C-alpha cells in the first residue's frame, strides 16, 4: 500500500464506525516497536526492509541507544479490507516497569489493545500488569504470540513440541484473564447482595427472598450465570495471531483455513473450527477426526501450518538449499529480487519470502478491524465508570450529567452534540517540529522562480568579478570591503533567528474526542479533579475548579511528525496545542458544565526513588525551577517537591526513569549543568512487641541482663512508668499528659495505608463539622467507611483493644496516615472520628446526641502534637508507621479564679464537669464577659503541642524500635549457568529469594525475590555484568518491611558477649541505614572517627 495522503485520513476520521483506537501492550523486549514498524511500513511511511531495525516510533535518542521505548507515541494508519477503508490510530507504549505510567495514559484513550507475548519467555510480570490495566479500563484485547522464529532457531523445537508450547502460553494468558474476570464477577455479586440487604432493612422484600439470608455462601453462583465466551483468547475465534515481527511474517488461522479449503476441498468453516485443537486428518477417509493426541497422530495445526514454516526455515536458513527454495517459491507464487536471493545473510531472503507469503501487517490489521470495537461500540459500563469520580456513583450525579451518557454512546459529530475531550498527558515538542514552523514543499512555479533568481544572482556576481579584475591596478585592496560588508551584515540577522527558535519548546496535549467536533480556536471548560457538576450547574461564575481555555491548534499525530488540522470529529485521537497554562498532566475538557471530571488514571508503578537537585552554578537556580516545572508537566509519573529544608526533590519510579528525567532536565527543560544527590531512600520508623529471644536465639526470660540500655532519662517534668507509660508536664506546670506507645497489628497498618483516601474524606467531614458546615457524602462513601470501621473492629481484638475503634482520636501523620491516636482518658467524652456515620444513624433514629458541647478547646493541640510526632520520629526524623499512641492521662491545673471559664478545666473536678455538661452556653458567656485568661490559640497551646509531641517520642523510645525499609519485588529470568551469580548478587544486596521455578519447555528459571530499595541502585547493571547480559531484573515497589535488627543494639547478656564480643562491631544494617539518613539530614551521628589509633602525634613530634 502506498503512502496515504492527509486528505484521505481527514475523510476517514469522519466515519467513527471504521475508526479503531488501539495500543500495543507487552513486557519489555517482546517486540512491540518492531511490530509497530511492520504496521507503519504497510502504509509506505518507512521501507519494509527497515521494519524492525529503524524502530520508527522510538523518536528519542536515548530510546534508540537503550533499545527500549520510554514514551508512548501515536500514529494514524490507513487499512483497506475489501471495499471498506479503516483508520487505525495506533499507540506504541513502553514495556519497562519504570514507564508503566505511559501505558496508563495510552490505555485510557483506546477502545482495544494488541497484547504481545514472547513465544519463548511466555507471560511475564509486565504482561500481567498490562492485561490488568486493559481490564480496569474496560478495553478489549487481542493477542499476538511473537518471536516464533526463536522456537525454531534458538530452542530447536520440533513443530509438534512448538505446538504444545504455544498451547501452554495460551493457557497462561487465559489464566490471567480468567482470574480478573472471576474477581470482577464476585465483586459485582457482593454489591448486589449489599443492595438486597438494604432493601431488606427497608422492608421492600421478605427475608426468604434475600440472597444474604443463605447460610452457605455459594461462590460459584455468580460465575455460572456470567457470559465469558468472548473473554478468552483462542485462535479459532480469530483473536490470536502467530508471528515473527523481525522476519516480517504473521498469520491467523483464517488465512490457512482459506488456503487449505481450496486445496483439500473442505469447507473453510470446518477447517476454522478444527485447525486449532485435538483434531487430525485421516488421509484414507479424507475426513477430519478428533483424538490426535490419544492416537499419536499429528494435529492439523502442526501438519498444515507449522510443518510448512519449519520446512521453510530449514531450507532457507539452516541448509540453504537453493533448489528447494526455488520449488517453495514457485508453489507459494512468490518472486524475490536477485540481490535478496544472493545476499550473504539468509534472513534477508527469508523475510523477502515471508513478507509476501504471510505479511504480518495484513494479519494483525485484519484481526484489529474485525475483532476490536469502534468508538461507537463503547459500553455503558465503561462510560459510567469514567464519570463516577471519587466517592460519587453514576446514579447520584445530576440528571443533566446522566444525559451526557447518550452523547458518549452515539459518538456524534453534529454541531449540537456537546464536545467531550480527555487529555491523558502533555508532551513537549520543539517549536521547529510544529507544522506551522516547517518549510513546506515548493510548487513547480515557485521552483521555477527560484531557479530564475539564482541565475540572475550568478550573472551579477560574474559581472562584479570582471569589474574588480579590470580596475585592479588603480583601486586599493580595501575597496573590495564595501562590496562584501553588506552581504555579511544582511546575513547576521538571518543566522540569529534559528537560534531564538531553538530555545522555544511547546507543549502538545495527547487527547481523544469522545463526543462532538473539536475545532481550532474553540473555547472549552477545563474540569479540575475536584469539580462538582451539581455545583457548576447551580452556581454563577466563577465556579470552583472550573476554568476556560482556547484550543489554539489541533494536530494529527504521525509518530515523529505532526500534521495541522482545522477540526477533528468524535472518536479520534489528536494533539492539542495551547493548553499548557490550563492543564498540568491530564484533564477533562467539555463545552458542557454538566460533565464531571473523568476518574484519575490508574498508575501501576509508585514513585519511590527521590534525588535532591541543584544547579552547578547557584545563579542558574531560576532556570532549574522553571525546568523542573516543565518536567513535572511533561512526565505523567514524575513528582517535583520542595522540602522543608529548601531542597528541590525529584521523585521517580525507578533508576532508568530517574536517568531519563535527569537527562531531560539537562538537555531540554532547564538546559543547564545540574548535580543530583545520591538517591534519598525513604524509611519508616515503628515499634514492635518486646522480643522473646535475644540475638543468639536464647530465651530472654532465663537471661540475666549484664547491661541495661536505651532507657528514657527521667527529669522533674518527665516520668517513665515500668509498663511504658510516659508522663510529661508542660513547663508552666498547667498540663500533664500521659502517653503509651503500642505497636499496631500488621493487618491494621496495611488496611490504614490502603484506605488513605477514605480517611482523608473522614477528616474533611470532621473539619466541616467543626466549622459548622455540612459535607454531603454519597451513600457509597458512607458504606465504605462503615466497612472500614467494621474491619478495624474485627482486626483490633483483645483486652487492650476493647472499644478502641470508637475511641480513635485521630490518624496521622497529615491526618490520614497509618498511625492512630487513642483516647484512653477516663471520663473524657469527645465526638468520635466516625461522627459522620453516627450523624447518619442519628438522623434515621430521629435523635442526635449533643456530645459536641463537651469538646475541649485544647483538643486540637493534642492532635497537632501527635501529628508532629508521627511526621518525624526520634530515630532519624522519618515518618512513623504502625504505631498507636494511647493518651491515658490528661490533667489541666489552672489557678482557681480561672476555673469558671469553660471546658478547658480539669475533668477531675466533678462539680465543674457537671456545670460544663449542663450549661455549655453559660461558660461561653462568662468567658466573653470576663475576657479569656487562657487562650486556646495562645502560648499555652504551643506548650501543650510540644508536650504531647515529646511525650509521644519518649513513649516511642520506651519500646523496642525498628526501622522499616521500602521493598521491591524483583523478578529475574536467567538460565541455569548464571543462576549462582544471580543468587550471589542478591545475597550481597540483602535480597531474599521467595520462589524459583523453571519455565516448562525452556532452560529459563524465574526467580522471585524481595530487595530493599536502598540496595537496588546499580543492581540491574551489576546483574547484567555478572551474567554477561543473560539475566535482567524487573523491579516494582511492593511494601514496607521491618528490619529485624535493632539499630541501637549492644550486647546485654553473657551469651551475646561471648558470641559478638564486647564491641559487637559486626555490621548492623539498620544502624548503617539510620546513620546514613541522620548524616544526610545534618543530625548528630554517634560514631567513632578514629578507631584503633596506634600512634598519637604530639606538639613535640610536630616540631
Written account of the structure:
This protein is an alpha+beta fold and 1103 residues long. It has 36 helices and 34 strands. The chain has an eight-stranded antiparallel beta sheet. A seven-stranded mixed beta sheet has the order 2-3-1-4-5-6-7, sandwiched between helices. Residues 204-217, 475-502, 702-711, 840-855 and 896-933 have low confidence and may be disordered.
What are the key terms here?
alpha+beta, eight-stranded antiparallel beta sheet, GTP binding, 39% helix
Kindly report the average pLDDT value.
Answer: 80
The general outline is globular
- Poorly predicted segments: 204-217, 475-502, 702-711, 840-855, 896-933
Strand proportion, as a percent range, falls in 15-25%
Structural class: alpha+beta
**Strand order of the main beta sheet, please?**
14-13-19-10-11-18-15-16
The portion of residues assigned to helices is 25-40%
Distance between the termini: 90 Å
Count of extended strands = 34
Rg measurement, Å: 36 Å
> Main β-sheet: number of strands, strand sense, barrel status?
8 strands, antiparallel
Number of helices, where a helix is a run of at least 4 consecutive DSSP H or I residues: 36
